[in-house]
Specification:
alpha+beta, globular, 7-stranded mixed β-sheet, single chain, Aminopeptidase, 4 helices, 7 strands, 177 residues
């Protein structure tokens, strides 16, 4: 699948936060009116100094609606998972799914991480085959299903922790504390 020809991936702006909260509400399937709580969550992501928060629009026009967003953050989930940069949530509007947008957002986050580290991590629910396939296509490999990330639970109780080296080094599984 190819992304739309006019797709623009850029750093989030304060003016994008309501649109990101609305996408998150749609994604989570929460009750109507939950957006204020979600706005606070999205604002916290925006204010985080050690993270990458990107949005995607169809054109470079500032009035163009946000059709997806994705984040990357530095985490220290030790002792059960390595310290490092993790790909975090990605949300794509239903109308923009299956267009390659998730791949574009993931590549942009990996480029951001590559400027800071030689490896990237991500975790997902073991049942999230779309995420597993996307990340496998980029070279990620499964590290473990026996790990914990504080504050994260997985439906069905099982997550997958995966890793990608961003240089020619080997997998740093030994970097765990």
């Amino acid at each position: 699948m190819r992304p739309p020809r006019t797709l623009v991936v850029r750093s989030v702006r304060a003016t994008d936060l309501d649109a990101c909260a609305a996408l998150l509400a749609l994604h989570d399937g929460g009750p109507a009116g939950a957006e204020p709580d979600l706005r606070a969550r999205v604002r916290a992501w925006f204010d985080r100094p050690d993270g990458c928060f990107l949005v995607a629009t169809q054109t470079s026009d500032p009035a163009d609606p946000v059709v997806g967003y994705a984040r990357a953050v530095h985490l220290d989930p030790s002792p059960t998972a390595p310290i490092g940069y993790y790909l975090a949530g990605i949300v794509v509007a239903p109308t923009a799914r299956r267009t390659g947008l998730g791949l574009c957002l993931t590549r942009a986050r990996l480029a951001w991480i590559a400027e800071r580290a030689d490896s990237a991590w991500y975790f997902t629910n073991a049942h999230n085959t779309a995420s597993l396939r996307l990340h496998e296509s980029l070279g990620f490999h499964e590290e473990s299903r026996d790990f914990a990330i504080p504050g994260v639970t997985f439906a069905g109780g099982r997550g997958v922790l995966a890793h990608l080296t961003l240089d020619d080094s080997t997998c740093p599984t030994a970097n765990r504390r």
